[in-house]
Amino acid sequence: MGRLTAGSSAARRSPHPVRARETSERLAAVAAASRAGLTAGEAWHEWGADLRGVSASGELLWGGDPHEADAARDAARAAQRLAHSSGVPLADVVEALARVESVAEEARLAQRVALAGPASSARVLTWLPMAGLALAALVEPRALSVLVTTGFGWALLALGAGLWWAGRAWTARMARRAAEEPPRDLVVWCALLSACTRAGLDVLSALDAVASASRRECGEAASRLRAGRPWEEAWEQVPAALQPLAPCLRPSWERGMSPVAALDALASSELARRKAASLAAAAALGVRLTLPLSMCLLPAFIAVGVVPLVVAVGAGVVSDVAPALTSLQPSGPSGPGDFTGGTP
Question: Is residue 167 part of a domain?
Fold first, then answer.
């Protein structure tokens, strides 16, 4: 046991390898430590350096901002509260979360791979106006003079800079939206409810325990059921994101069937749906990037690259041709005595 504790302390003193782990690996390490007989506080030390311990009231103590919005931290908080308040073994709760988190991480990796191409395209497109400016200066150096020494050139620079900024902000916003991860409240609830029912809690007790641990209003459904309300009426005020739980739990309430299989199937289907949605968003991003390209970045390229080049080349041609045209013009009308034949 002392060897395990020393290893945990060494891991905490070297935060870099721990912080590189995925959430599922952290949860698996916490579950393994709990099954090895360590207390909750000792087991949660396996999470990593950003977790300082467990308070006497059963709350996890985080480093930095304790209220920082983080889905992994929220799930860990809920798991610890549930184990502390309901008596469900911490290892069972954390392992249930680790299973769904592992699948979610696979989906995130697939999304990251699918977004790699469109994200690279977005980064390249933002440099298109700069490339146009450099190309214009390379072909005709006087194009820079047109931009910086004339009022027309300053207007082109202002227009190009505004279009470039708009296109860059637009592409960045589209890339962020495509990479957004949807809320995973439903998946976390499936994992926590499954752990509770596996531990022997009935549906109402499990709903109360998980609602208290996750600080959500779903516990009102259990209160209404205890008051004798019909099943549909009891679930009316439950948040829409958690409504799919109702058909999974209803057979257990009405006929005493175990909801574990239904909850696990719901979690799997929800994770598959999230993965499909993220891949579809990544595929759509490649097409939607044509909007900022055609409406902002390409016009900026023309404004700072093509137009100054055309003006500079045109001015050079005019300056070269004008003297020759001037020399070809007649000097003036000739007098009568200028005729070679003279008067007969």
Answer: yes
Torsion of CA 161, 163, 166, 168, to 10 degrees: -70
pLDDT in tens, 193-237: 999 999 888 888 888 888 888 866 666 788 888 888 888 888 888
Name the H helices within the chain: 2-13, 15-19, 23-35, 40-44, 71-86, 90-125, 128-139, 142-149, 151-179, 185-198, 203-214, 219-226, 231-234, 245-255, 260-288, 290-292, 298-301, 307-328
Grade residue 86 by pLDDT with cuts at 50, 70 and 90: confident
Structural domain range at position 154: 112-182+286-316
How many other C-beta atoms can be found within 10 angstroms of the C-beta atom of residue 157? Answer: 16
- 271 in Cβ contact with 100 (< 8 Å): yes
Considering the domain boundaries, does residue 262 fall inside one? Answer: no
Q: What is the pLDDT of residues 88-106, one digit of tens each?
A: 899 999 999 898 888 888 8
322 pLDDT more than 70: no
Q: How many domains does the chain have?
A: 1
Tokens of 97: 């979360």
Per the domain annotation, does 177 fall within a domain? Answer: yes
CA–CA distance, 236 with 107 (Å, rounded to integer): 32
Asked if residue 213 belongs to a domain, the reply is no
